[in-house]
C-alpha cells in the first residue's frame, strides 16, 4: 500500500523543518497505517518456544531417561543371569566329567577313553600361560608340571608328537630341568621299565634325548616334545628371508623357485611341522602370538569358561578332532 499525497506532503514538510512539525506519536500514527498486519501464528510460535524451553529439563526428558535406564538394567540383568548360568553349567559338566573320566595317573584309563575315537591326531600342540607373568614364586614350577602332565596324557593316548607353546620362552631357558621333570613324570606313570623314550627339542638348541635300554631291542616309538615361543616365529621368518635373498643373489635359485610350498617346508623344518590339533586351556581362543603359518589346517579347540589345564579339556579336544571334517579343496 503506497502513501497518499496528503501524508507524503506532511512527512516531507516535517522532514524539511527538522521534524519539528510532527511529534513522535504523530509520525508513528502516520507510518502505522501503512505497515502490514502482524502474522496470526506469531503468538502460537512464541508459546511453543516457551513450552520447549520449559520442557527442556522437564518431566518428559526425565521420564525418557528413566525409561532408558530401566531398559539398560533389564538387558544387563538378563545377560548377567545368562553368563552365570552358562558358567555354572560348564563348571558342573567339567566336574562330572572329571569324576567319571579321571585317569588316576594310569595310562590304561586314558587308552580306554580314547579307544572309542575313530582317529587320533599325530601331532598335538598346546598353549600354556605363565601365571602372573612369572611374578609368582611357583609359576615356573606349575608351568613345568602342566607340561609334564600333558606329555604323559599324549604318551598314554599314543600321540607321539607334542609341541608346547609358551609365549615368553621360559621353558627353553630351562631345557635340562624341563627334560628331567618330563622323564620323572613319565616314569611315575609308566614305571621305570615301560617308560617311553623322550626327546626334547627347541629352535636354536641341541636336542636332549633319553633312551631306555630295556627297549632298545624292541625299537619303541619315541615321544617327541618341542618347545616353541613367540620369538621363534619372527626369527624363523627373518632367517629364511635372509637365506633366500642370499641364494637368489648368488644365482643358486631364481625368484620363481620361491613358492608357498617351499616356504611352508622350510618354516616347518625351522620351527615345527603343522599340528593336527591345537588346544587352548583359556576360556576363549587366545593364540598369544602363536606362529600363524603352521596352523592353516589345524583344528583349534578351547573349552568355554574353563580355567587351567585339565584332562577333561584334553579329552574333549580329541573328540572334537574326531568329529572335525577337513576340506583341503581341489
The percent of residues in helical segments reads: 40-55%
Proportion of strand residues: 5-15%
Class by alpha and beta content: alpha/beta
Shape: elongated
**Largest beta-sheet characterization:** 7 strands, mixed
**N-to-C SSE series?**
HHHHHEHEHHEEEHHEEH
Q: Going across the major beta sheet, what is the strand order? A: 4-3-5-2-1-6-7
CA-atom Rg in angstroms:
40 Å
**What's the tally of helices?**
11
Instruction: Give the assembly state of these chains.
Output: single chain
In total, the number of strands is 7
The averaged pLDDT comes out at 82
User: What's the end-to-end separation, in Å?
Assistant: 89 Å
Q: Are there runs of 5+ residues with pLDDT below 50, and where?
A: none
What does this structure look like?
The relative contact order is 0.10. The radius of gyration is 40 Å and the shape is elongated. It has a 7-stranded mixed beta sheet with strand order 4-3-5-2-1-6-7. The protein has 330 residues and is α/β, with parallel strands linked by helices. It has helices spanning 5-16, 24-32, 42-55, 59-100, 107-114, 139-157, 170-173, 175-190, 230-249, 260-270, 311-323, and strands at residues 123-128, 161-166, 198-202, 205-210, 223-228, 277-280, 299-302. Helices cover 51% and strands 11% of the residues.
Amino acid at each position: 500500500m503506497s502513501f497518499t499525497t496528503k501524508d507524503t506532503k506532511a512527512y516531507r514538510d516535517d522532514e524539511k523543518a527538522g521534524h519539528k512539525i510532527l511529534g513522535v506519536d504523530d509520525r508513528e500514527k502516520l507510518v502505522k497505517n501503512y505497515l502490514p498486519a502482524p502474522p496470526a501464528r506469531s503468538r502460537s510460535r512464541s508459546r511453543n518456544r516457551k513450552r520447549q524451553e520449559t520442557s527442556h529439563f522437564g518431566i518428559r526428558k526425565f521420564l525418557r531417561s528413566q525409561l532408558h535406564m530401566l531398559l539398560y538394567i533389564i538387558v544387563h540383568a538378563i545377560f548377567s543371569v545368562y553368563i552365570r548360568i552358562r558358567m555354572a553349567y560348564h563348571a558342573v559338566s567339567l566336574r562330572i566329567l572329571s569324576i567319571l573320566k579321571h585317569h588316576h595317573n594310569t595310562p590304561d584309563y586314558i587308552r580306554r577313553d580314547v579307544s572309542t575315537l575313530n582317529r587320533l591326531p599325530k601331532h598335538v600342540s598346546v598353549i600354556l600361560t605363565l601365571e602372573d607373568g612369572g611374578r609368582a614364586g611357583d609359576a615356573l614350577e606349575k608351568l613345568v608340571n602342566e607340561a609334564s602332565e600333558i606329555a604323559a596324557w599324549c604318551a598314554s593316548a599314543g600321540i607321539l608328537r607334542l609341541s608346547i607353546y609358551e609365549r615368553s620362552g621360559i621353558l627353553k631357558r630351562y631345557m635340562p630341568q624341563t627334560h628331567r621333570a618330563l622323564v620323572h613324570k613319565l616314569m611315575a606313570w609308566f614305571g621305570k621299565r615301560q617308560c617311553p623314550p623322550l626327546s626334547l627339542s627347541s629352535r636354536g638348541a641341541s636336542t636332549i634325548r633319553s633312551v631306555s635300554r630295556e627297549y632298545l631291542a624292541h625299537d619303541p616309538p619315541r615321544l617327541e616334545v618341542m618347545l616353541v615361543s613367540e620369538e621363534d616365529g619372527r626369527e624363523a621368518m627373518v632367517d629364511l628371508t635372509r637365506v633366500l635373498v642370499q641364494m637368489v643373489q648368488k644365482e643358486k635359485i631364481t625368484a620363481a623357485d620361491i613358492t608357498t610350498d617351499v616356504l611352508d617346508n622350510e618354516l616347518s623344518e625351522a620351527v615345527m611341522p603343522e599340528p593336527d590339533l591345537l588346544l587352548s586351556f583359556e576360556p576363549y581362543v587366545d593364540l598369544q602370538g602363536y606362529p600363524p603359518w603352521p596352523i592353516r589346517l589345524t583344528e583349534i579347540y578351547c573349552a568355554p569358561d574353563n580355567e587351567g589345564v585339565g584332562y577333561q579339556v584334553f579329552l574333549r579336544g580329541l573328540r572334537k578332532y574326531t568329529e572335525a571334517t577337513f576340506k583341503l579343496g581341489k
